[in-house]
Design goal:
- The structure holds two protein chains of two kinds.
- By secondary structure, chain A is α+β, with helices and mostly antiparallel strands.
- Chain A has 19 helices and 20 strands.
- A five-stranded parallel sheet of chain A has the order 2-1-3-4-5, sandwiched between helices. Chain A has a five-stranded antiparallel sheet with strand order 6-15-14-11-12.
- Chain B is α/β, with parallel strands linked by helices.
- Chain B has a single domain, classed as Transcription Regulator spoIIAA, CATH 3.30.750.24.
- Chain B contains three helices and six strands.
- Chain B is globular and about 30 Å long.
- Classes of the chains: A alpha+beta, B alpha/beta.
- At the A-B interface, loops of A face helix 2 and helix 3 of B.
Chain lengths: ~575, ~100
């Protein structure tokens, strides 16, 4: 509901005279009409309030003679009657009594001014105009203040709406995770703090804590695209560096230069028994293990500042044994100040967490609150805690209901020369599609490598007829790339066929047969099959060796323009490891 | 809080006094905008800066962008607290800090 907003009518120039004497009214009327005012008259006490309501005046002159002797509230009631129409209607009290008595009455009856008979036309006009000036000032002020109230109210409504949208975005990611706890101060939601936690289908737990520059709307607005990218990329089993690089690219493109996103990602992998920490301009990520503290400091610029190619996407990694506790924080805790202006500081944060036992978050909030005497709630502060024990011991058999059973399917793709020219990395999309039909995230990287190597060979050697030995010469790589670009430019015929056939070997086990055929002339693969000495392949040919090492078999056929790779997957090892 | 800018030779020096935060936005921008294109390098003197938040980092990035890649920018004389903030943000990758 919209609050009462008195839209003020334009100021009228109507003046009401409440005076039993017809002579007095004639006097007022003569002077005021000459000045352009509309002058109304009531001569009875009981008619005043009706008159005021029917034709609201800008000013009222009340004669003491019309007032009830026993009551002092006439002027107050006039003002109340006017209040539905206008913010402020000044009332003058007039009388021919002596000054002392008039003054007493004016004060008692709360008049805005008084007139003592006899008075000149100049005195009357001076008083009337001065009160009307005050009235117009008051009306202007009231109108501004009403507008501010209105805006404030609208803003509050918008905040509520935004909060609902936030909830929708952030709730799906606030997965209930064993060992995970967090605190997000109420002020932080609209100050650009963002905490996301999600489990990948590989069993890896990913926690992102970020903080946009500045405060308020501009800081909050970036949260939504980041949350969306994170959630969808984690679901697609993208790696942390891929996620970071994608978020960075997006923010780099959309954020103005002075806005950026400090961001830390903690990845806990039960399969590897390792934690990987990526810190981009956030306070140290802390790890407590057997009463010892380790810090993982920022090694990069915050996200959204430079091109993704300039980011160092290598994590800081640590082996886990299940007794570690990680803390990720925004700077709200460290920067909380006590009434003397002293900061809580990193040292106090670390010491508090180190000695807090299992109650890290609760104790820290209490300590900071005590330190800065209740001002803490004003700050935006977010903290996340992750105990590695429950993650490492999590029973993955339970989560197997989320996994898709092996099914029988195949896919065929033909890329003609137009598609080959346009697509930089067609295998990325293909792997995503496979992951959608048969989610086997822990095999994704290997699958991509196989497909990409074989596709690249088909393109570069089969269709473009490039010579890899170029790469062995000085500056060869650059020349190779130039040649490649020129060859692609000139490509106007040919195709590459990709066929993937999947057959299940068990509930969570299967075999992918990947066949890639190009329209080129092929090559003499007997030499390759004779297992060449690796040193001949320092700068080229590594692709085939690598691919062969990932597959259960790799065979060339025909003229060498057809290759088939067989890849075997099963998810049982992760399950056994986790259960054991 | 106040920002003063002066041109010494071909170096524009900006002195940031007191709290360096969003309240300084207008003043900081005003202080350097006239030197853009005239100064060959910038020095932001933080010796009297008592506090710096992420908005201030943002303003430095804005200066970085406006000045262009060929212009050298130094952040000098930061105290421990301010240095810590610059270090967390890894600003040594974009500025010379000393």
């Amino acid at each position: 509901m919209i609050p009462p907003f008195t839209s003020l009518q334009p100021l009228s120039n109507r003046i009401l005279i409440a005076d039993p004497s017809a002579e007095h009214f004639a006097f007022y009327d003569c002077i005021l009409t000459a000045q352009g005012f509309e002058v109304l008259h009531v001569d009875r006490h009981d008619a005043i309030l009706d008159a005021v309501q029917q034709l609201p005046p800008s000013l009222v002159i009340v004669d003491l003679a019309i007032c009830d002797e026993k009551r002092n509230d006439l002027i107050k009631r006039i003002k109340q009657s006017c209040s539905t129409h206008s913010a402020f209607v000044p009332v003058l009290l007039a009388s021919n009594q002596d000054e002392q008595i008039l003054l007493q009455h004016a004060v008692a009856k709360e008049a805005d001014g008084f007139l003592q008979f006899p008075f000149s036309d100049k005195v009357l006009m001076a008083k009337v105009q001065s009160l009307l000036r005050i009235r117009s000032l008051y009306v202007a002020l009231k109108s501004t203040s009403d507008q501010i109230h209105q805006l404030h109210y609208t803003l509050e409504q918008e905040y509520k709406d935004a909060e609902r949208i936030y909830e929708k975005f952030l709730r799906p990611s606030a997965q209930k995770l064993a060992g995970f706890d967090s605190y997000i101060s109420s002020a932080s939601i609209f100050n650009g703090d963002l905490l996301l936690a999600k489990v990948q289908s590989s069993g890896d737990v990913l926690i992102l804590l970020g903080d946009f520059t500045g405060h308020g709307l501009s800081a909050a607005i970036g949260v939504i695209p980041v949350a969306e990218m994170f959630n969808s990329m984690v679901t697609k089993a993208r790696s942390a560096p891929e996620i970071i690089s994608e978020i960075n690219t997006k923010l780099y493109n959309i954020l103005p230069a002075h806005l950026f996103f400090g961001c830390a990602i903690l990845q806990v992998s039960p399969a590897q028994k390792k934690a990987h920490i990526y810190n981009f301009g956030m306070p140290d990520v802390l790890m407590i293990k057997r009463a010892e503290l380790s810090r993982f400091s920022s090694r990069n610029l915050p996200l959204g500042v430079v091109n993704s190619q300039r980011l160092d996407l290598y994590p800081q990694s640590v082996d886990l044994s299940g007794d570690e506790v990680f803390y990720m924080l925004t700077d709200g805790f460290t920067e909380s100040r006590n009434p003397q202006g002293e900061m809580f500081g990193d040292h106090r944060v670390e010491q508090t967490l180190l000695h807090a036992g299992k109650q890290g978050i609760k104790t820290l909030i209490e300590q900071v609150g005590e330190f800065c005497a209740d001002c803490f709630t004003e700050d935006d502060a977010t903290i996340a805690e992750l105990q590695t024990g429950p993650i490492l011991n999590f029973n993955y058999i339970d989560s197997f209901s989320h996994l898709t059973k092996a099914s029988r399917w195949n896919l065929n793709f033909r890329f003609d020369h137009v598609a080959l020219k346009q697509m930089a990395h067609p295998m990325e999309g293909l792997v995503d599609m496979i992951m959608h039909v048969q989610p086997i995230p822990s095999h994704k990287e290997r699958l991509f490598m196989i497909l990409d190597e074989l596709y690249t060979n088909a393109l570069e050697h089969g269709l473009l007829k490039l010579d890899s030995s170029l790469k062995q010469q000085e500056d060869g790589f650059l020349r190779f790339l130039n040649e490649r670009e020129r060859a692609i430019e000139g490509l106007n015929t040919g195709f590459i066929d990709v066929q993937v056939i999947h057959k299940p070997l068990g509930e969570y086990e299967g075999e992918l047969s990947i066949r890639i055929e190009d329209s080129g002339e092929g090559f003499d693969y007997t030499e390759l099959d004779a297992s060449p000495a690796p040193n001949q392949f320092i700068f080229s040919g590594r692709g085939v060796l690598l691919t062969r090492s990932l597959c259960s078999s790799l065979t060339y056929e025909g003229q060498g323009n057809v290759v088939t790779a067989v890849y075997h997957w099963h998810l049982r090892p992760i399950m056994e490891q986790a259960a054991g | 809080m106040s920002v003063e800018g002066q041109l010494v030779g071909n170096t524009a020096i900006l002195f940031v006094k007191g709290r360096f935060d969003i309240a300084s936005y207008e003043e900081f921008n005003q202080a350097y905008i006239n030197f853009i294109g005239r100064a060959e390098q910038f020095q932001v003197d933080l010796s009297t800066t008592t506090f710096m938040d992420s908005s201030a980092l943002g303003m430095l990035l804005l200066l970085r962008e406006k000045a262009g890649d060929s212009v050298h920018i130094e952040l000098i004389n930061a105290d421990d607290e301010v240095s810590k903030i610059l270090q967390i943000a890894q600003f040594q990758q974009l500025f010379t800090i000393r």
